[in-house]
Design a protein that fits this description.
This protein has 298 residues and is an alpha/beta fold. The protein is 39% helix and 17% strand. An 8-stranded parallel beta barrel has the order 1-2-3-4-7-8-9-10, surrounded by 4 helices. Strands 5-6 form a two-stranded antiparallel ribbon. Helix 6 links the parallel strand 8 and strand 9.
C-alpha cells in the first residue's frame, strides 16, 4: 500500500506553500496531490491558488515526490489547453505527474465561466468525450477531432509526455459510465466513498459500500477485457463516516488502512492538516503517520 497526501492550494508560496511540498517529500509520501478548483466550499472566501502553477512550482522544489491533481474536471477545463499544460508539467517534473480526473459536480466551478450548471447526464456525456480526446492529445503529435462538446483542429503536442505513452490517469468514478472510463483509460481509479453515508452512515456501512464499488469496477474491467488488478485503487479520505478520525493517532490510521487494504485499495490519500477547518489535525501525529504507519501494516 502507498500513502499519499493532498495539499490544498491555500497558502502563499513564500508563506508556507513551498515548505509544505518540500516537507511532503521529506516525510516519504508517495504522491502529493492538490485540488484542481477555482475555489472550493468553505475556503471560497480565502486564498486559493491555481493547480497547474502550484504543481509547476512544487516540481521545481522537489526531486522524487510524485505530483498530481485530485481531481481535474471539465467544469472549467478544455482538453486542448489542458493537454498542453500537462505535457509541460510532465516535462518540468521529469515524469512525476499523475492526472486525477473526474466528471465534476455542481460546486462553484460549475458556473464560474458564466454557464448554467450541467445536468448529471450532461456531465457524464462531457466527461466521456473529454477523457477520450485528452487521451489522444497526450499520445499523438497532432489531433483533429469534432465531437459534440469538444473539438481540436490540428492541435500539436510535440514532444509529448516524458512518461510513455502518456502520463497516468487516475479516474474518479462511482457510476457505471465512469467505471467504464476508468477501465478503458485509467491507470488508477479514485473514490471518496459513498457520499450518502457521510452524515449519518457508519464506518462499517462505508466499507460495505466501497466493497460494492470495487466489485463494480471489476465488472467494468472484465467487460473491457482488462484485469482489474492492473488498476491502482485510490481512496481519498475525509469524506467517509470516519472523517478525520484516522488521523487522531498512528494506531487509528493503521486500523483504518488495514481495513481498506483488505478491500483491495493500493493507495490512501490523507489531507495535509489545515487548522480551523474540516481538515484540522495534529501536525506531529500526521507526520508520525507518514513515517511509521505503513511499516506497522506489515
Amino acid at each position: 500500500m502507498r500513502l499519499s497526501t493532498v495539499i490544498l492550494p491555500t497558502d502563499r508560496w513564500h508563506e508556507g506553500g513551498r515548505a509544505k511540498w518540500r516537507r511532503a517529500e521529506e516525510l516519504g509520501f508517495h504522491t502529493a496531490y492538490t485540488y484542481d478548483h477555482l475555489s472550493w466550499r468553505t475556503f471560497r472566501d480565502g486564498p486559493w491558488f491555481g493547480a497547474v502553477p502550484t504543481l509547476s512550482a512544487a516540481a521545481a522544489v522537489t526531486e522524487r515526490l510524485r505530483l498530481g491533481t485530485l481531481v481535474t474536471s471539465p467544469n472549467f477545463r478544455h482538453p486542448v489547453t489542458l493537454a498542453k499544460d500537462l505535457i509541460t508539467l510532465d516535462d518540468v517534473s521529469d515524469g512525476r505527474i499523475t492526472l486525477g480526473i473526474g466528471a465534476g459536480g455542481n460546486g462553484f466551478d460549475a458556473t464560474a465561466l458564466g454557464q448554467e450548471a450541467w445536468t448529471p447526464k450532461e456531465r457524464a456525456d462531457r466527461f466521456g468525450e473529454f477523457v477520450a480526446l485528452l487521451d489522444r492529445l497526450l499520445t499523438e503529435d497532432a489531433v483533429t477531432e469534432r465531437g459534440t462538446f469538444y473539438a481540436a483542429d490540428e492541435a500539436r503536442n510535440v514532444p509529448g509526455c516524458v512518461q510513455r505513452p502518456r502520463l497516468p490517469f487516475a479516474v474518479a468514478a462511482t457510476g457505471p459510465r465512469g467505471m467504464r472510463l476508468a477501465a478503458r483509460y485509467g491507470q488508477a481509479w479514485v473514490t471518496t466513498g459513498d457520499p450518502k453515508l457521510y452524515e449519518e452512515g457508519t464506518p462499517e456501512q462505508s466499507v460495505a459500500a466501497l466493497r460494492g464499488q470495487i466489485d463494480r469496477l471489476g465488472k467494468a474491467c472484465a467487460e473491457s477485457g482488462r484485469d482489474v488488478a492492473e488498476l491502482g485503487k485510490i481512496l481519498l479520505t475525509g469524506f467517509t463516516p470516519d472523517r478525520n478520525r484516522p488521523l487522531e493517532s498512528v494506531e487509528a490510521f493503521v486500523d483504518f488502512a488495514g481495513r481498506h487494504r483488505e478491500l483491495g485499495f493500493t493507495e490512501i490519500v490523507v489531507h495535509w492538516p489545515i487548522p480551523d477547518s474540516g481538515f484540522a489535525a495534529d501536525q506531529a501525529v500526521f507526520e508520525s503517520i507518514a513515517t511509521e504507519a505503513l511499516s506497522r501494516l506489515g
